[in-house]
Amino acid sequence: MTTVRGTTNPLRTRWITPAVAVLVGVLLIALAAWTVAQVVRGTAAHSWDGDYTDPKALVSWLIGSISEPQFYAVAPAGAFLLIGGLVGHLAYRRSWRWQGFVQACGSGLWPWAVGSALGGLLLGNLAWGWTLAPGSWQPLFVPLVSVAPAMVVLYGPGWRVALTAATFGALLTPPASILVVEYVCKPWDLPPVVGATTGMWLAAILTFWLCRGLPWMPAPGAWRRGTPDDVPARGLLWVPRRALADFSEAQFFGNEWASAALILGAVVAQLISPAGVAYGTGLFLAVLGSQILTALAGVLIWRRRWEAHGFYPTFVPVVSVAPAVVLAFGGTIQSIVVGALAGALIAPPIAAAISARLPAGFHPFIGNVASMTVCTALLVPLLDLVPGFTS
């Protein structure tokens, strides 16, 4: 979720030994099986009312939140994403031919980034779960895809960085997003993703400013070392591979294995219980279709920017404009096509332009989520004015 790919040699984390990898893999598979069983029993709806004495509902809510950036919000998709991410990381560690794109913004710091993100997600829900009422929703997933993993990628591995990142993500991001959803999105009838992403960049700006004064935080980017990587090959399969990887870029995975597993988990849940996916709207297939279209279109339109810079934020409409338009207009054909193509055309260059103008020491993901805010907030109301476009 950044524009620094391909600029340094990845730091290959060493603390995931084969034994640890096997143990983590077994636990994740067991977790995935449990989430599927919950769907089969019809008890896996993405709902939790802030009752801390109900650990089963809390766990299901947390795992479902992992896939919430894609608008799936279903536990199997979140659990499968973690499995795919582990496969992608192990493939990278062993330099498999089919390892895919390196995760955590090309840094290879996947264990630290995902660990900090999950820690921020848990702490954020424990700290702000009281804002939920029965049957309500709040953007409590936001630490997962913003401040926490971004700080790890910027400041490097280590427990001090990871714990600081998780804490800042949990304490600052949810309340900012909640307030914007409540006092801006609801009165102005804007999609909730506008509030969630606004909270992300507001909290990130404050966090990176505060980190400048923390004595235990290293200099931004100081952990990176080595010579620049070779420009990745651009074969015939590069476009579909990159489009697939964009599905998990919001979680700082950005890897084909992770994305394929994420989609597989959502499809499994859809086949078992269609009413439980995509917030119970029944529009999962429309959302997925629009995301596939916008991912392919974005990579094709901006392929030269990818070649020139090593990274370009083509994932932005996959987790914002395209699904938001589909949900806003009932999954009609025009909402699928227009949301996808408009998002692919306007969201990536706006994200890149904002990121390029950020001060030193501010992670470029700020520009990406700011673009999500701007493009969604402008496009959905404009399309609502188009005769015959509303469902």
Give a quick summary of the entry.
The protein has helices at 18-40, 55-65, 75-93, 103-106, 110-128, 147-155, 159-188, 192-211, 238-245, 256-272, 284-301, 303-309, 321-328, 333-356, 365-384. The radius of gyration is 19 Å and the shape is globular.
What does this 3D model show about the protein?
The protein is globular and about 55 Å long. Helix 7 packs antiparallel against helix 8. With 391 residues, the protein is mainly α. It has 15 helices and no strands.
Query: What percentage of the residues does DSSP assign to strands (E)?
Result: under 5%
Number of strands: 0
Please tell me the overall pLDDT.
Answer: 92
Order of helices and strands: HHHHHHHHHHHHHHH
Q: Oligomer, anyone?
A: single chain
How many DSSP helices?
15
Largest sheet: none
Overall geometry: globular
Q: What is the CA-CA span between the terminal residues?
A: 33 Å
